Each structure stands twice: as C-alpha cells, then as structure tokens.
C-alpha cells in the first residue's frame, strides 16, 4: 500500500507527540534550571522552551541537509 508524503509526515508527527519518554525527560530536567530567585518562572520556562525549539530546528535542519547531501552524492557516484 502506497503512503503519500503527507500521510507519512502525519504518522511521524503523531508518533513523536505521543512519546511519553520525551515528556518525562522534560519534566525531570527542566525544573533543575528554573530558579525562583531569578524572577517569575513563566518567562524562564518560555525562554527554555524557545531555546529547546531552536536547537531542535537547527539539529533537524542539519540532519536533513546532511542526509540530502549524502543522497545526492551517492546517487552521483552510483550513476557515473
């Protein structure tokens, strides 16, 4: 059965979002870096969330770039 790109993306996103290990990790790690003596916790948590999202974006973009570069390189090697 052929799966469209959108269906594959949606399946991967849902699988990632329902992964309890990621949520447990964040619940275990985040509180160690939130300090009440530095001010309200909500802005600190927002900055941490933005940093995490930014690092994930950079990491995933790097992985995609490297993978596509390797795919093109290997395609060129096998064709020639």
TrEMBL record:
Signal peptide: none annotated. It is a multi-pass membrane protein. The chain crosses the membrane at residues 12-33, 53-79. This is Threonine/homoserine/homoserine lactone efflux protein. It comes from Phyllobacterium trifolii. One of its GO terms (cellular component) is plasma membrane. Keywords: Cell membrane, Membrane, Transmembrane, Transmembrane helix. InterPro entries: LeuE-type. One of its GO terms (biological process) is amino acid transport. It is found in: Cell membrane. The lineage of its organism: Bacteria, Pseudomonadati, Pseudomonadota, Alphaproteobacteria, Hyphomicrobiales. Its main location: membrane.
């Amino acid at each position: 059965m052929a799966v469209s790109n959108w269906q594959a993306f949606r399946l991967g996103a849902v699988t990632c979002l329902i992964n309890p290990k990621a949520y447990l990790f964040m619940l275990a790690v985040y509180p160690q870096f939130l300090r009440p003596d530095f001010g309200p916790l909500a802005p600190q948590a927002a900055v941490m969330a933005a940093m995490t999202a930014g690092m994930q974006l950079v990491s995933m973009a790097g992985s995609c770039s490297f993978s596509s570069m390797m795919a093109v390189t290997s395609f060129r090697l096998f064709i020639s």
